[in-house]
């Protein structure tokens, strides 16, 4: 049976999931459907249970919760005195005594800890990755593929490669078509007043285009990927034909409008002598349509629309009398009717077709972008996290689920899925066969969720799965609980907060039209008494601008915080929730301003000024002063032409160099002085002068013999970051160096590549701040989901709803005058009012409905975080905002009306009663230590101290051989040699002075008859690709080539003296490995590059 537990916020969904896990862990289900205690001493029930959560943080919290509750049941939690809240229910479930449950819990806890690797609590993505790695061969993946978590990185690669392809290969097939679509896009941007520096990777235009491709690469696109790509790749001419058809149809309709208005004006002139006349407004409107019908559509007159509905509206009063007395003039009426019908009916359709046509560049380019993304996957032996669901869908399909479990190594029978409302359709399609198989074996599973808390639709979550579809897909095999008021008790919030939210969201759900989803919004108050009934204040703010609103909101927030601290709340019981990260930064800035007044005689907030601030969202790694210093130095290193020159430049080149070098150095100085605490103005003044900052990278670079990216960062930290900053900003430095190491593990570890990656990705990285008893938390509403705070502040309720951001996918609909056979299956369109009264209106209505629902859900999540006090402000003077939605609840919230119109109040603020210190579990840290200063020990010093005094000639030869070997790993074909050499210089594999001789050598070696077939005309090539055996052994051949004549050649590069016997053994092992993988026609060669001697290896 599949149990579905629906309940509102604070009603104990996590409590229920932990209970169900413990029940399945301790019990065995009998043939009568009832559970009894498992008496087996070798309990392995945990191996058959998978608990799925939404985030990694939730995974750890769930594991801790289960272990803690088991320890309490077993009386094994040190110092814990409270009875387990589960004991009574478990005794009734198992028909057992408390002692029997205690013994079973003790045994299960020991078995679980001794077999901890099978304690399966994970995110759904992590579980899917386990399956995917097991089925790597079926998915045509190598077993050692890399999982690329950053989809944006792959899309950025695809976009950049697209532009490089256009630049480097202008005669290639398809270039003209792609250039045409890009031209269309740039013309649109120019028309809208935007810049058109699309090919400049640091421009806003480039970032905007990349963001566009990222946004449309959503779950809808993934579900229809094959369908879309089949249209684009198999019949590429259809998209161009469709664009031409749209333009032709638009021109035809504009022509009909113009000709219709011309005819009407001629007929009007012929009737000029009759009594009365056609209204001047209508005549003027017709003239505008004749002059420029496209412009007239934008600034349309309402008169033709009125005439289209009532023909008599075309005439003045005298003409109307004449019209009634003598009857109509057939030719005039017909001309007016025809013209007004075109003017009324065609413009919406024209605007629709224009929007479709102007958005076709997305389809025209996405095909090529994804072609290069596939190249990214191949070259990096990687799959994207977003690929996981679609690949699994191909593997699992409707196949027998036990086969999946067998290969995974688990025999899963029970699934417990938390936050199910955040599950996407693709994820559901993959996990549904597993649930189906579980129920077929009479095993129980649990789904927990709340449609009202679905706030991740932008990540493709589908709340309709929880709402109705799961029950529809498993008829008769599901039970639903928690969806009635009697089964929906709020254990989190104070009574006044619960009752207020019941009333508010009951009213708002009716206003939005989502009563069905919010049917269980009303919650019960537990019958346990309350020392503090709670306080809610929702204040309307009348302000002429958003800035003025925010100014008032911040003032009220800080006043209320000071009052709460004065009444006995602790600093860490206060939290500020914001919609956007930028709002959080604004809140933190205000709190920091107040902190600067601490101890001053006229301090307005004596308690609040003592507070610290914690915010995972607003503590941006890139904004830390020490990180700015490190990155400014890395930017200078990233451009070798600034650091190393041969002195042979011409005057113009030298002047250009000095200009750029001075600019880089000035920026370095600015970051240096900023990191020392100077204001931006003072730092700029000091940077413009050359005093006080004499660090010379050019002189230091040659000293770094042990050179790689992490050691370079360590070197910068030691020489450029003061001991004081290494202590004060240690968590930023440590987090940054972790990122550097992660980047080196998954990407080419050169400085230039890292700098580009950082510029693209740095906005995503924040530092998780440690808990602090004197700290107020500031976070986005999305990050606060699942948390609770005694006092919740929501200062900025002023954002637009609904608000569409960019293109959305629309399923194609028949368009009059357009051949359906040339239409794409889906169309990317920017939603707008022009879609009303068109064939796309139902899809637009659905999008508007979903966004309004999502924003209501976000509001619900925010308001239900409050435990005892909720303080919020909304902008009352702005239409189309969340404030307008809140104001719509006025009539239904009369019992909460405050002193100001539109204000809602429940309860009164009061002194907080004295509370007992909460008990800590064995898994909770009882003591904490301050993080030590970031310690560095320069790698160059270590290198110098540990070098062995080898023969200098031998050392130079080994170094040269290693460098050339690494360079050849960058060479795919003969055309890539110049680029590979340049990359080698930038990665400091070779020096700039060595680059030209090395390039000449390689071009000679790979261009001769003996080696040419390895570097051109081949079918496939692998360079330094790792082979992993079933014993966990790793091998990495230098180059493997599928040649044009059908052979597979394995080549090993060598430099220096020939040692054929030793090298032959190595190659024979490679041949054996490939033969075991099913390949034939294998050959092996040792290539001594310096002498150009090639030795075949027999086997």
Write structural notes for this entry.
- This protein is α/β, with parallel strands linked by helices.
- The chain folds into six domains: 2-141 and 387-487, Rossmann fold (3-Layer(aba) Sandwich), CATH 3.40.50; 149-235 and 360-383, no CATH class; 243-355, no CATH class; 532-616 and 773-891, Rossmann fold; 621-641 and 653-764, no CATH class; 948-1096, Lambda Exonuclease, Chain A.
- Helices cover 51% and strands 11% of the residues.
- It is built from 41 helices and 26 strands.
- A seven-stranded mixed beta sheet has the order 13-14-12-15-18-11-19, with helices on both faces. A six-stranded parallel beta sheet has the order 5-4-8-9-1-10, sandwiched between helices. It has a five-stranded mixed beta sheet with strand order 20-23-24-25-26, covered by helices on one side.
- Strand 23 and strand 24 form a beta hairpin.
- Helix 5 crosses helix 17 (387-396), helix 17 packs parallel to helix 19 (425-440) and helix 38 (977-986) packs antiparallel against helix 39 (992-1007).
- The longest helix has 51 residues, at 330-380.
- The two termini are 60 Å apart.
């Amino acid at each position: 049976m599949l149990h579905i537990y629906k309940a509102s916020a604070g009603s104990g969904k996590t409590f229920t999931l932990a209970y169900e896990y413990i029940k399945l862990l301790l019990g065995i289900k009998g043939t009568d459907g009832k559970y009894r205690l498992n008496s087996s001493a070798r309990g392995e029930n945990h191996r058959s249970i998978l608990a799925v959560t939404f985030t990694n943080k939730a995974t750890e919290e769930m594991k801790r919760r289960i272990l803690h509750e088991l320890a309490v049941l077993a009386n094994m939690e040190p110092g814990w005195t409270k009875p387990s809240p589960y004991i009574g229910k478990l005794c009734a479930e198992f028909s057992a005594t408390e002692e029997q449950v205690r013994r079973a819990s003790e045994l299960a806890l020991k078995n679980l800890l001794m077999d901890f690797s099978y304690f399966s609590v994970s995110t759904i993505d992590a579980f899917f990755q386990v399956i995917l790695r097991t089925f790597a061969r079926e998915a045509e993946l190598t077993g050692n593929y890399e999982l690329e978590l950053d989809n944006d990185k792959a899309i950025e690669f695809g976009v950049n490669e697209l532009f490089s392809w256009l630049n480097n290969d202008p005669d290639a097939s398809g270039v003209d078509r792609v250039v045409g679509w890009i031209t269309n896009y740039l013309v649109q941007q120019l028309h809208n007043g935007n810049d058109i520096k699309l090919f400049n990777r640091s421009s806003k235009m480039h970032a905007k285009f990349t963001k566009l491709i990222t946004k449309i690469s959503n779950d809808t696109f993934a579900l229809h990927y094959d369908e879309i790509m089949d249209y684009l790749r198999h019949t590429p001419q259809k998209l161009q034909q469709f664009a031409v058809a749209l333009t032709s149809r638009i021109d035809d309709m504009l022509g009909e409008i113009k000709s219709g208005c011309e005819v009407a004006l001629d007929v009007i002139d012929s009737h000029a002598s009759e009594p009365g006349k056609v209204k001047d407004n209508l005549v003027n409107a017709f003239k505008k349509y004749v002059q420029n019908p496209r412009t007239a559509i934008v600034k349309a007159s309402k008169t033709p629309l009125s005439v289209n509905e009532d023909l008599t509206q075309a005439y003045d009063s005298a003409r109307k009398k004449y019209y009634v007395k003598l009857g109509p003039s057939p030719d005039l009426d017909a001309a007016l009717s025809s013209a007004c019908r075109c003017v009324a009916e065609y413009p919406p359709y024209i605007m629709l077709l224009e929007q479709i046509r102007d958005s076709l560049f997305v389809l025209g380019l996405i095909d090529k972008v994804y072609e290069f993304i596939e190249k990214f996957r191949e070259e990096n032996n990687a799959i994207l996290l977003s690929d996981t669901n679609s690949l699994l869908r191909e593997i699992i399909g409707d196949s027998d689920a036990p086969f999946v479990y067998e290969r995974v190594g688990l025999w899963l029978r029970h699934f417990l899925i938390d936050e199910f409302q955040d599950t996407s359709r693709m994820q559901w399609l993959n996990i549904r066969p597993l649930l189906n198989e579980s129920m077929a074996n009479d095993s129980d599973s649990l789904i927990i969720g709340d449609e009202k808390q679905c706030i991740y639709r932008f990540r493709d979550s589908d709340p309709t799965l929880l709402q109705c579809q799961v029950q529809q897909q498993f008829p008769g095999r599901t039970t639903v609980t928690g969806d009635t008021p009697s089964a929906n008790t709020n254990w989190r919030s104070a009574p006044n907060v619960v009752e207020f939210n019941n009333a508010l969201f009951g009213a708002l759900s009716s206003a939005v039209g989502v009563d069905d989803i919010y049917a269980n919004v009303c919650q019960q108050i537990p019958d346990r008494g309350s020392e503090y009934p709670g306080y809610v204040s929702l204040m309307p703010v009348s302000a002429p601008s958003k800035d003025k609103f925010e100014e008032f909101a911040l003032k009220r927030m800080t006043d209320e915080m000071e009052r709460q601290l004065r009444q006995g709340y602790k600093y860490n019981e206060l939290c500020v929730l914001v919609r956007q990260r930028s709002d959080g930064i604004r809140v933190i800035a205000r709190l920091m301003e107040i902190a600067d007044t601490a101890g001053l005689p006229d301090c307005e907030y004596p308690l609040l000024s003592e507070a610290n601030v914690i915010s995972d969202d607003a503590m941006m790694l890139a904004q830390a002063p020490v990180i700015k210093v490190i990155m400014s130095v890395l930017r200078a290193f990233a451009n070798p032409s600034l650091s190393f020159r041969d002195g042979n430049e011409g005057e113009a080149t030298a002047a250009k160099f000095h200009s750029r070098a001075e600019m880089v150095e000035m920026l370095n100085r600015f970051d240096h002085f900023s990191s020392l605490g100077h204001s931006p103005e003072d730092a700029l003044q000091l940077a413009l002068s050359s005093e006080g900052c004499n660090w010379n990278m050019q002189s230091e670079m040659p000293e770094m013999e042990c050179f790689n990216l992490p050691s370079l960062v360590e070197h910068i930290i030691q020489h450029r970051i003061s001991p004081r900053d290494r202590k004060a900003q240690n968590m930023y430095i440590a987090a940054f160096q972790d990122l550097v190491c992660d980047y080196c593990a998954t990407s080419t570890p050169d400085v230039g590549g890292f700098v580009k990656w950082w510029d693209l990705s740095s906005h995503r990285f924040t530092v998780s701040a440690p808990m602090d008893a004197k700290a107020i938390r500031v976070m986005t509403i999305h990050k606060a989901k699942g948390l609770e705070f005694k006092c919740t502040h929501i200062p900025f309720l002023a954002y637009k709803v609904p608000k569409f951001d960019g293109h959305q996918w629309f399923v194609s609909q028949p368009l009059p005058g357009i051949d359906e056979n040339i239409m794409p299956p889906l169309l990317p369109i920017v939603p707008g009012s022009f879609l009303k009264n068109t064939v796309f209106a139902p899809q637009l209505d659905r999008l508007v409905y979903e966004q309004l629902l999502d924003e209501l859900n976000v509001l619900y999540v925010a308001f239900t975080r409050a435990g005892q006090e909720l303080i919020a402000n909304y902008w009352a003077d702005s239409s189309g905002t969340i404030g307008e939605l809140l104001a719509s609840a006025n009539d239904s919230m009369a019992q909460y009306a405050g002193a100001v119109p539109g204000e809602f109040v429940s309860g009164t603020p009061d002194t907080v009663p004295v509370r007992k210190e909460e008990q800590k579990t064995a898994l909770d840290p009882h003591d904490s230590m301050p993080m030590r200063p970031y310690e560095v020990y320069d790698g160059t010093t270590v290198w110098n101290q540990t070098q062995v005094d080898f023969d200098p000639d031998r050392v130079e030869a080994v170094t040269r051989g290693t460098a050339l070997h690494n360079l050849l790993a960058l060479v795919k074909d003969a055309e890539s040699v110049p680029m590979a050499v340049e990359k080698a210089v930038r990665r400091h594999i070779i020096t700039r002075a060595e680059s030209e001789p090395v390039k000449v050598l390689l071009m000679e070696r790979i261009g001769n008859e003996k080696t040419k077939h390895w570097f051109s005309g081949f079918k496939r090539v692998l360079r330094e690709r790792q082979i992993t055996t079933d014993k966990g052994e790793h091998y990495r051949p230098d180059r493997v080539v599928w040649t044009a004549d059908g052979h597979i050649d394995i080549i090993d590069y060598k430099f220096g003296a020939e040692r054929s016997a030793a090298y032959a053994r190595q190659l024979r092992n490679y041949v054996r490995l490939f033969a075991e993988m099913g390949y034939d026609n294998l050959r092996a060669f040792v290539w001594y590059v310096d002498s150009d001697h090639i030795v075949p290896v027999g086997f």
